[in-house]
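input
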Amino acid sequence: MPDDETDQTIRFDVEGGYLALMRSIVIEPDGRATIEVSGRTSTAEFDADTVGRLRQQLDDTGLFGADSRLEIEGADLQQYTITYRGATLVATDGVVPIELTATFAELEQLILDNR
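output
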């Protein structure tokens, strides 16, 4: 797997759900981040420990060797899209891989804390 800075950028998007609230976070390798919630953009900066922990959690899943989609049909489900190391994984509520639940929760909290 290539290890250039583009591949180390983490992009996480959440859309849909009961309120249809769209939110995203893009964390650059140096910790700079752009957060968007329903069209409002803000920036943040995360320390090396936070960025390293997130990268390690994603690497440990082994899920980012190729693009994948894990979706089920249903009303008011949220769709999660995460891009890392050049691969994109899309999942909906109910089929988020267990290996990613803690990371998704942490990324969502970073969005809420820094919007």
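quick obs: The first strand starts at residue 10 and ends at 16.
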